[in-house]
Each structure stands twice: as structure tokens, then as C-alpha cells.
Amino acid sequence: MIRQRRMKIVATLGPASASPERIEDLFRTGVDVFRLNFSHGTHADHEASIDAIRKVEKKAGKPIAILADLQGPKLRVGRFAGGHVVLQWGRSFRLDLLPRPGDGERVQLPHPELLAVAVAGSTLLLDDGRIRLEVVRRSDEALETRVVVGGRLSDHKGVNLPGLALPIPALTAKDREDLSFALDHGVDYIGLSFVQRPQDVAEARELVGDRALILTKIEKPQALDSLDEILKLSDAVMVARGDLGVELPPEDVPLVQKRLVRAAHRWGRPVIVATQMMESMTESPAPTRAEASDVATAVFDGADAVMLSAETATGRFPTETVRMMDRILSRTERDEDLRAARDLLRPKPDKSSADAISVAARQVAETIEARVIVAFTTTGATALRIARQRPECGVLGLTTSLATARRMALVWGVHPIVSEGTFTMGETVERAKTLASRTGMAKRGEEIVVVAGVPFGRSGGTNSLRVARVGQAPAD
Q1: CATH of the domain at 328
Q2: Catalytic residue among 275, 319, 428, 462
Q3: Do residues 219 and 172 touch, judged by C-beta distance below 8 A?
Q4: Domain-terminating residue out of 160, 182, 207
Q5: Which of the following is catalytic: 217, 241, 371, 390?
Q6: Residue 232 designated active-site
């Protein structure tokens, strides 16, 4: 089952999409990676979803990646005696540590860490930025603020302090429990939330080890200050535009998206563009023109994948949304101007034999108009290096490891297949020709490019490139 596009689709499961029948429908419509949002649902819910995904995977014979997205710290106000209040512009409002219901003059802020870093003049954003407060005075017990932008504020709405690094670890006690559950159930990627500094990723790495890949969500502007160090420690990255957009000016978010995608390319990390890609389809059977343009822009920016959140988790039209996203991606990838855009975004190769072979594979494939590049890989690194070059032809990622094949499901242009191991370059080329033909990626008489490492079965040794013709007898 080979997709006819290079970009991958990540879909979030939820009440609208968690049934086994819906999961299979979404996969066959175009989903490559399923996201489990640990901000919602129970472990039993997620276990049922994982079981359903693996059954679909076995039935379809195509590796599927699972992303376990950890909640991270959630900074929220307490509750109100009446369930909500309306804050008036220019009025005073106090946030304190007192655990009693709030009113129009005060509410609990059960996070002493925020009180420790806020100063007079600091801005507090509540309810995804809909409410804006300015700190007038700070004490160890409370923040006295002035309402800059008022409105309705209800129980347990979120709090953001833009521009301030918070002394809060990225992993809460709940996250650690969820992480243990996710690893025990064999997920492929761990989505790490609330990352502010490289140490946050390093802490997660100690817990995860090599049992899964770490996908760092860039949702705090503070992470941009040490982006290269964070990417170096990460296996993949997500442009979490919703959370970024709360603390950044709206006009900065598109530029940050482009910067993050470029940086991910430099480091050879798969990158997802997420949040509100097609949000109107939560309630409508068709996207807005602006949303279609947003998805196409992610293609031109060079992202590996785009993500659906509420559209598939709670929306009325989850399958239709995936089908529409597939259509937009496929049409955009056929645009004549896209090749020039890819040429401009292609990163400079590293000074290594593996990168040199990957660059050569793309160049040879384009010169001879090869139908596919077949990459034999132990860890997925070879396929990832080739995908980083954004070749015009498809990439077939062959591996003996099911875990590696699942992880490659997120990578741009790579069609992962679990295959038996080979022991010589001759065997490797013959296996590549057979599978390229069997998958329909190359027909009899068409040329393919084969990339592998010798000796076989050892990671990090990509050093061989061959050109072969499908259907042709092996050379002596």
C-alpha cells in the first residue's frame, strides 16, 4: 500500500475517531501516523487505540507509527464561586495562593513558581490569550494585576507568562506515568511538551533510552533561544503553532514556522507542522480557502508532515478531513514551482561518507530518471539522510526491524517495508529490484538506485551505491 504523495499525515484520535472501524478508515484514507493525546482519555482508552492500530497495521501489511503526546505542565487558575466572572478593562484583579473559590476581584493561582518569576510590568495571558493582565505588584503570596484586555473567565483556564522562562520541569508526575505506559505498549514517538531548554530533552532521553524516539514540541518561545541544542538532542520536532501563537505576536508565527523547518532540515530531523491546519472542518465538510493555502504552504516550507488535532479527534467529519488534506498535499506536490523551492531549501551535506552517498543517490537518480531510491537501513538513518535531500523519486526504506519501519512512517517520501536481511551486495540489489517491482514503485526495464552499508547489519555504515534495472538478470 504505497501513498502517492511524499508528505505524511498525522491524525489525533479521540471520541470521533477511536473505534477500530474508524481507525482503519482513517488509515486507508491517508493517515500515516496516529497521535494519542495524553491530555485526554484514560490508559484503557489509549490501550484500546493502540491495539486497534496494530490490528490495522497487520491487516494492511504497512507499518504505522504511533505518537504518544504527553500533556506536560498545565498552568491554570482555580475555580470561581459562580463558575465564571467577567473581567472589566482597567479594573484590579488579584491572583493568589488561597485555595478558595474566586470572584470578580481575585482567583487562586496554584503555582508559586509563577509568583517567583513575575515582576511588575509582566504580562499574564489567560484562556489562550483572550484575557490579558499586567502585573502591578508582586509578593510571595499574590500578584496584583490590572486588566488590560477583559472578558469572560471561567474555571481552570490556562495561564501563560510570555517572555519568561519558568522554573518548571517539562515532565510532571502524570507525564512520567503516561510515559511508562506508552513505552510498555510499544509506541514509536514520545511527544515532549513544555520544552524550554535542552535539559528538558536530556531528562526525557534518560527515561526513554532507545525504546522510542523523542519528538520535541516547540511550543514555548524560550525554546527558540537554544534551538540548535534542543534539536541536537531530539529525534524529531513539531511546530506547535497554537501554543506558540499564544505567547508570540501572530505576525511572528509564520516566520517561526519557516525557521523551525529550516533548522530541522539542517539537523536531519523530521518536522511536523501542527495546529488549526483545517480547523473549520471540525464542523464543516469543506475547508476554508485559507486553510487549504496553509496546508500547501507547509509543503513549500519543506515539512515532513502536517497534523490534524480536533478535526479528527472530536470533529464531525474526520475521514473527509483526511481525504481533503490528502488531496491538497497531492496537488501541491505536483506543482511545477515546488522543485525550485526544494532546491533552495536543501541543506548542505555533512562531511561524512554516509551523507556523501545520500547526496550522490539523489543526483544519480535525477540524472538517470530512476523511479525509486531503495535504502537498506538498520536504524532508519540512511532513509532519513536520503529524504533530507528531497529527491524527485520515491524512497523505499527496507529494514529487518519492524520498530525502525514504524519510525520511518513519519519521514518525508519514505515508504517503509520490513524485509529479510541480506549478506552480499548482489543479494541486496536483487531484493531491491524485487520489492521495487512488487510495490509498483518501478516497472520492468526501469532503473532504480540502491543504497546500503557494507558490511551488512551494522548501523552507521552507509557506503555503497548501485544502479540496477528491474527485470534484468544479475551481472556476473
Answers
A1: 3.20.20.60
A2: 275
A3: no
A4: 160
A5: 217
A6: no
